[in-house]
């Protein structure tokens, strides 16, 4: 979009999916407020046991999502429970492909038992960011999605190698933006290791969310405006007060004339 042109009514009518990372608990340990988040999001990125989640958590979240009509997505990750999937790993492509298919298959059992289905796949944490630029890892993720079978969309950062490989494989692709993460001038996410990578001012997060949906743009860390053509907006479920923030974001989007609905 040409950022010098005024926003049209057609732009304002552009629908937006609202997704959140859910099921990020393990055993007696809980992190995400799954029930509250499922009351306002339209898509649920469910942890599949490699960075968080276990069989009981996955089943519970799938049941709750299906009951509300929320789309279920497999949030696949490096095998990194200790690091919450946020440590980059050099996993051999064939091994990564098998692990992606394994995670999707595990979640599919619980989604189908709940009367729903796994509709899409989204990498988590370090794998998500690595697949933005690493052709080998991105291709391995896509091969894992294909190996798992089914009509699965792939959710990722606009311009990423992940979405390029997914499109080449004939998979549906969905561009995603982040409500509470800082952007570089190049349109990528500021690494969590750097100051200011995660935004904590809720008013600012809400304003940015509306700007992403209506203006299709976001302000980078250096103050420059960069285009963001996204169909889905992510709110991190592990952020303190994430459910209340998600409700504010959804309310603000709807007040701005944006239809909030799942992309699938």
Keywords:
alpha/beta, 39% helix, TIM Barrel, two-stranded antiparallel ribbon, globular, 264 residues, disordered N terminus, single chain, seven-stranded parallel β-barrel
Explained architecture:
The protein is α/β, with parallel strands linked by helices and 264 residues long. It has one domain: Glycoside hydrolase/deacetylase (TIM Barrel), CATH 3.20.20.370. Helix content is 39%, strand content 16%. The protein has 9 helices and 9 strands. The protein has helices spanning 9-12, 34-38, 55-68, 93-113, 125-133, 135-148, 161-168, 202-214, 242-255, and strands at 17-22, 43-47, 71-76, 118-123, 153-156, 173-178, 217-219, 225-227, 232-235. The strands form 2 sheets. Strands 1-2-3-4-5-6-9 form a 7-stranded parallel barrel, surrounded by 7 helices. A two-stranded antiparallel sheet has the order 7-8. Helix 2 (34-38) links the parallel strand 1 and strand 2. Helix 4 (93-113) packs parallel to helix 6 and helix 6 packs across helix 7. It starts with 8 loop residues before the first helix and ends in a 9-residue tail after the last helix.
């Amino acid at each position: 979009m040409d950022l010098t042109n005024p926003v049209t009514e057609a732009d304002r009518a552009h629908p937006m999916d609202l997704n959140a990372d859910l099921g990020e608990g393990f055993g007696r340990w809980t992190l995400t407020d799954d029930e509250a988040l499922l009351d306002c999001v339209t898509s649920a990125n469910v942890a599949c046991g490699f960075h968080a989640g276990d069989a009981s958590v996955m089943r519970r979240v799938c049941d709750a999502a299906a009951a509300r009509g929320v789309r279920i997505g497999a949030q696949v990750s490096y095998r990194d429970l200790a690091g919450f999937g946020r440590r980059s790993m050099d996993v051999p492509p064939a091994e990564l492909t098998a692990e992606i298919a394994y995670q999707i298959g595990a979640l599919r059992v619980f989604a189908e038992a709940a009367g729903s289905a796994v509709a899409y796949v989204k990498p988590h944490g370090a794998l998500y960011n690595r697949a933005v630029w690493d052709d080998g890892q991105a291709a391995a993720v896509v091969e894992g999605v294909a190996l798992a079978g089914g009509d699965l969309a792939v959710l990722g950062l606009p311009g990423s190698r992940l979405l390029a490989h997914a499109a080449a494989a004939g998979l549906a692709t969905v561009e995603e933006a982040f409500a509470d993460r800082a952007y570089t001038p190049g349109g990528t996410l500021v690494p969590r290791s750097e100051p200011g990578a995660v935004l904590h001012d809720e008013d600012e997060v809400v304003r940015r969310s509306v700007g992403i949906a209506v203006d299709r743009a976001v302000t980078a860390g250096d103050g420059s405006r960069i285009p963001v053509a996204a169909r889905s907006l992510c709110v991190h479920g592990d952020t303190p007060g994430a459910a209340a923030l998600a409700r504010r974001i959804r309310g603000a989007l709807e007040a701005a004339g944006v239809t909030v609905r799942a992309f699938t």
